[in-house]
Amino acid sequence: MKIASTIARYLLGFIFLVFGLNGFLHFIPMPPPPPGPAGQFMGALFISHYLVPIFLLQLVPAILLLAGRYVPLALALLAPVIVNIFLFHALMAPSGLPLALVVTVLWILTFLSVRSAFAGIFQQRVQS
Fold first, then answer.
1. Phi, psi of 28 (to 5 degrees)
2. Is 97 helix (H, G, I), strand (E, B) or coil?
3. Where is 119: in which H helix or E strand?
4. Closest CA to 103 of 82, 81, 80
């Protein structure tokens, strides 16, 4: 399991490093926006510059994952990004759903290796 979680951590870090850097450097050609709500949603994110912090929230945790430092923090920062990616593809653009599922599985495998760091947030009641 340790080898699988290490490979998952590196793959997850690499995926988000590539796509986070692409948000700033534009080295992967972008296809035309999808029709309908998906295109409108992406257009609104682009015009409002909302994607800049999203790309930073992909890039910084990717570097942390690849360096093997602050892995629980990196996973906590990536979790909402992955949820939004998954929901976007599940609800508006199903063509990207396979990659969203792969990223989700990689996140879970990486999470399982450091789940003890999250033990405190899964407590039903906290001692005062």
1. -105, 120
2. helix
3. none
4. 82
- 92's tokens: 């508006």
For 58-76, the pLDDT digits (tens) are 999 999 999 999 999 999 9
Rama region for 35: left / alpha / beta (φ>0; ψ in -120 to 50; rest) = beta
Distance of CA 104 to the CA centre of its chain: 8
What radius of gyration do the chain's Cα atoms show?
Answer: 16
Does 123 or 91 have the greater pLDDT score?
A: 91
- Residue 95: in which H helix or E strand, if any? none
Task: Give per-residue pLDDT as tens, 77-103.
Answer: 999 999 999 999 999 999 999 999 999
Domain boundaries, the chain: 1-30+68-115
Alpha carbons 80 and 78: distance in angstroms, whole number = 6
User: 75: which 2 tokens?
Assistant: 């996973």
Picking from 71, 72, 100, 60, the residue whose alpha carbon sits closest to that of residue 84 is: 100
Q: Would you say the C-alpha torsion 47, 48, 49, 54 has a positive or negative sign?
A: negative
